[in-house]
């Protein structure tokens, strides 16, 4: 049985209905606002939560892209914008999902703890194609640092994107493309 893939155009921030409609294997083009945050920014956000302080952004229904861009060229809002390995944020992701984070974009597998939090919170994990940062940056209309400017490329940015290409890896029902694709491949071999 071959995995069904569907091409979908989705506005972000994500609504509960939009997140619930996505299935592992879907090709999705995101349009709207997403945020960037990598290791250092996630660590600071966790420290703020531990102290009872507010986060520098409202994560509810938002999508965080695990990415640290290269410097922008003249006339461009951002440089190369490829994904970072998502597992580095696994110790922070469940708390953010519990606060209403609806989506994450990265590359690579996630822990069972993140998978459980995705299902519990009816969220979604998207993969962006690693090594295609220059191409991905073409879908970014604007980029603005909104927090932790001292972290340089790891600062939190608000991005406006148009038709930003991602693939649903883990859906709100817990289907994981990394697992199903391997099983399907082994069956066909």
Overall description:
- Strand 1, helix 1 and strand 2 form a beta-alpha-beta unit.
- With 189 residues, this protein is α/β, with parallel strands linked by helices.
- A five-stranded mixed barrel has the order 2-3-4-5-7.
- Helices cover 26% and strands 26% of the residues.
Taken as a percent bin, the fraction of beta residues is: 25-35%
Structural class by helix and strand composition? alpha/beta
Secondary-structure element string? EHEHEHEHEHEEH
Mean pLDDT across the residues is 92
Largest sheet: 5 strands, mixed, barrel
* Radius of gyration using CA atoms only: 16 Å
Strand line-up in the sheet with most strands: 2-3-4-5-7
Uncertain runs are none
- The helix tally amounts to 6
* Basic shape: globular
What is the number of strand segments? 7
Whole-Å distance between the termini? 13 Å
Can you describe this structure in just a few lines?
This protein has 6 helices and 7 strands.
Task: Label this structure with key terms.
189 residues; alpha/beta; five-stranded mixed beta barrel; 7 strands
Write the layout of secondary structure elements.
Layout: E1 7-12, H1 16-21, E2 27-36, H2 39-50, E3 63-65, H3 93-98, E4 103-106, H4 112-120, E5 124-127, H5 133-136, E6 140-147, E7 156-170, H6 177-188
Parallel strand pairs: 1-2, 2-3, 3-4, 4-5
Antiparallel strand pairs: 2-7, 5-7, 6-7
């Amino acid at each position: 049985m071959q995995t069904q893939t569907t091409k979908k155009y989705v506005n972000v921030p994500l609504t509960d209905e939009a997140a619930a409609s996505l299935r592992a294997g879907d090709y999705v083009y995101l349009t709207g606002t997403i945020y960037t945050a990598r290791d250092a920014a996630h660590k600071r956000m966790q420290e703020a939560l531990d102290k009872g302080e507010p986060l520098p952004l409202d994560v509810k229904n938002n999508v965080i892209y695990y990415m640290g861009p290269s410097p922008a060229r003249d006339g461009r809002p951002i440089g190369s914008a490829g994904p970072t390995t998502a597992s580095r944020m696994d110790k922070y992701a469940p708390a953010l999902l519990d606060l209403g984070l609806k989506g994450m974009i990265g590359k690579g597998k996630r822990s069972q703890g993140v998978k459980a939090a995705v299902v519990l919170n009816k969220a979604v994990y998207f993969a962006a194609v690693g090594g295609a940062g220059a191409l991905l940056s073409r879908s970014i209309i604007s980029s603005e640092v909104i927090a932790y400017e001292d972290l340089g490329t790891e600062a939190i940015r608000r991005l406006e994107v148009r038709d930003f290409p991602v693939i649903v890896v883990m859906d709100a029902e817990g289907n994981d493309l990394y697992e199903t694709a391997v099983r399907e491949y082994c069956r066909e071999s």
